[in-house]
From TrEMBL:
NmrA-like domain ranges (all copies): 73-370
Polar residues composition bias: residue spans: 410-421
Protein name according to UniProt: NmrA-domain-containing protein
Record's compositionally biased regions (Acidic residues): 397-407
GO CC terms, sorted: nucleus
Organism annotation: Aureobasidium pullulans (Black yeast)
Lineage of the organism: Eukaryota, Fungi, Dikarya, Ascomycota, Pezizomycotina
Length: 444
């Protein structure tokens, strides 16, 4: 971003003046070890070496009498940046002028390309599953000079080892506020509750971060609205019926409350507020990111209002009709036992949704998601049910929710903000952070 020097006699006018107000966009280039960050630039603004890829920011042409302002002073590191949580935060951080150094496994794909085009964003391509001898220097350079970090590890590779390595690198770099996306280990709260493997790994990493003494906050995310699909994926399949209605079958008790979150819409603003409030406000605390508290029956009622079709909930076992990773299968078996049969609370003893709503009032509800986003996501997956001529006039208006009086917190008291949809603003099931079978595991 540039401004005119006081020595300029005449004000600049026209397109040049407008050009000054926009930071340069970023482009993808090779090098995982990117020190110095802005050296050896080619004409397109990128730096190359034989080790991998990273982004640098392109510059404006030299303009007599124009001197640059200082760039944004806050630099935040993210990993697995094309995932739903992290991509949401990268978009918001970029929008408010923060520098983002965003690690991705590959620069290919719609989300990576979208993030690379944002101002003040450096996309750093590198595999977190690389050998430790290579991973440590990679992470050292990734965190160099950064004071903030949002870390969401995935089940790719050895998640615990990667999580610990990221925390170690952040400590060496002097990061002053480290937000880690964690989840509960239910066996800690009750020995009869079987831990969910993909969650307990995150809990192990959380405990390691606490032992390091980094100023840290731990976010616990609810069920992603985006998990719903009519494709034959387990647990959150909205199975399309011949009459045009939907059926959701899951092991959750029909009246047990569940936390809901539109990850791509709401994680970013909430994280930004946590960072802005500073490490002292949230040091060592667990923050539940869930903006609605809905039982399965309530969720189906709200979903039916959104799609304008009947949605029925069936309390039953998880149907697995497609090939899934063995680790995720084990996770689903544990979930069915712990959250389903034994009815353990989703977050353990943690409360919601008031905490998340205090951070961000403009959340997107499940009903809004079903109305405004779900049909587009289904169409992107090649489905056409939304174009059929079936009509359900009785579902065009709000239906009475039989459970709504039981939980007033399920009713939003705020004005929801829903931005218009643009391509690449969502993480598809088939994307670079998925596993070898292109199966993406969201929250749950």
């Amino acid at each position: 971003m540039f401004t005119r020097s006081t020595s300029v006699a005449k004000p600049l006018a026209g397109p040049l003046e407008l050009l000054q107000t926009f930071p340069p966009a970023a482009t993808c280039s090779k090098s995982p070890l990117f020190a110095p960050l802005f050296s050896s630039k080619e004409k397109n603004g990128s730096s190359k070496s034989g080790h991998g890829r990273h982004i640098t920011c392109g510059g404006l042409p030299d303009i007599p009498g124009i001197m640059p302002l200082m760039m944004p002073t806050k630099t935040v590191v993210t990993i697995n940046s094309t995932g739903r949580q992290t991509a949401s935060f990268v978009r918001v951080a970029s929008a408010v002028g923060w520098r983002v150094r965003a690690q991705v496994r590959t620069c290919d794909g719609l989300v990576a390309e979208e993030l690379a085009a944002l101002p003040n964003v450096e996309i750093v391509e590198g595999d977190l599953c690389q050998p430790k001898a290579d991973l440590i220097p990679f992470l050292n350079h990734l965190f160099e000079g950064a004071k903030l970090a949002f870390i969401n590890t995935t089940h790719w590779g050895d998640e615990v080892a990667i999580g610990k390595a990221c925390a170690d690198a952040a400590k060496r770099a002097g990061v002053t506020h480290y937000i880690y996306s964690s989840m509960p280990d239910h066996s800690v709260y009750n020995p009869d509750w079987r831990p969910l493997p993909l969650w307990s790994q995150k809990f192990t990493i959380e405990n390691y971060v606490r032992q390091l003494g980094i100023p840290a906050t731990f976010t616990y995310t609810g069920i992603y609205n985006n998990n719903f699909t009519s494709l034959p994926y387990p647990l959150f399949r909205m199975e399309l019926q011949e009459d045009g209605s939907f059926v959701w079958q899951a092991p959750f008790h029909p009246h047990d409350p569940l936390p809901w979150l539109d990850a791509e819409h709401d994680v970013g603003p909430a994280l930004l507020q946590i960072f802005k409030m500073g490490p002292n406000a949230w040091k060592g605390q667990r923050v539940t990111l869930a903006f609605e508290r809905l039982s399965p029956i309530q969720a189906c009622v709200k979903f039916s209002r959104g799609v304008g079709r009947p949605v029925k909930y069936i309390h039953g076992p998880i149907d697995i009709e497609v090939s899934i990773p063995s680790g995720y299968r084990e996770h689903l078996e544990s979930l069915q036992e712990t959250l389903g049969e034994k009815r353990a609370p989703y977050f353990g003893p943690l409360e919601y949704p008031q905490e998340a709503r205090s951070l961000w009032e403009g959340y997107r509800s499940l009903e809004e998601y079903a109305r405004e986003v779900f049909p587009d996501e289904e169409a992107a997956n090649g489905l056409t049910w939304m174009d059929d001529d079936k009509e359900f006039p009785e579902y065009a208006e709000s239906n009475e929710d039989p459970d709504e009086d039981r939980d007033e917190s399920s009713v939003s008291s705020t004005t929801n903000i829903t931005p218009s949809w643009t391509p690449g603003m969502r993480t598809p099931f088939n994307h670079p952070e998925a596993d070898a079978h292109n199966f993406f595991v969201g929250s749950c």
